[in-house]
Amino acid sequence: MKKRRKAYSVDAMMRFFLQYYNIPTKQDIEKILSRIDRLETAIKAGKVSGSRSRKAGKPKPATGKKGVAKGRAKMSATEKVLSILKRSPKGIDVSGLKAKSGFEDKKIRNIIFRLFRQETIRRVGRGIYAMR
After folding, report:
1. Whole-angstrom Cα distance, residue 121 to residue 126?
2. Kind and range of the H or E element at 98?
C-alpha cells in the first residue's frame, strides 16, 4: 500500500516561490514606501543633512574669497588612536585605547592592525602597543 503524501496548499507554494526567487511581497513594498515617505517628510523639514546637489549645467559662482574652515577639523579614528599612543610612551593596551577613545574593540583592532602593517607602531608586549 502506497503512502499518501501531504497535499501542499497553493498559498504555501506561492510563499515558497516568492522567497526562493526573492520576489518582494505587497508587505515588503508597503514597508519601503512608508520609509520613503518618512525620508521625504524629513527632507522637506530640513532634518536630513548632506550635500545638496546642483544642476550639472550650471557652473559654481566664482567668489573672491576661498572657503574658510569653520571650527576645528574633525580627527579621523586613526588620528585619534595615534594621538593616544603618542601620549603614552611606555605603550597602551587595547582596553586602555577603548576607554580613552570610546571606540569598539573591532574598530580599534582594525586600526592597530593597519598601523602595525604600516610600521607606524610597534608591539611592546602582548596586546601592548607604542609608537615607533
Report:
1. 14
2. helix 94-101
Q: In this prediction, what percent of the chain has a pLDDT beyond 70?
A: 79
Q: Which domain holds residue 21?
A: 10-45
Using alpha carbons, list the distances in angstroms from residue 77 to 24, 33, 120, 130: 39, 36, 15, 17
Give the confidence band of 86 by pLDDT, cuts at 50, 70, 90: very high
Cell numbers for 121: 607602531
Q: Output the pTM of the full model.
A: 0.45
Give the chain's length: 132
| Tally of structural domains, the chain | 2
Tell me how far apart the alpha carbons of residues 12 and 18 are, in angstroms, rounded to a whole number: 10
Distance CA 42, CA 12 (A): 39
| 59 located within any domain | no
Single-letter amino acid, residue 60: K
94-101 helix and 105-117 helix, angle to the nearest 10 degrees: 120
Give me the CATH number covering residue 93: 1.10.10.10
Closest to 23 measured CA to CA, from 35, 33, 15: 15
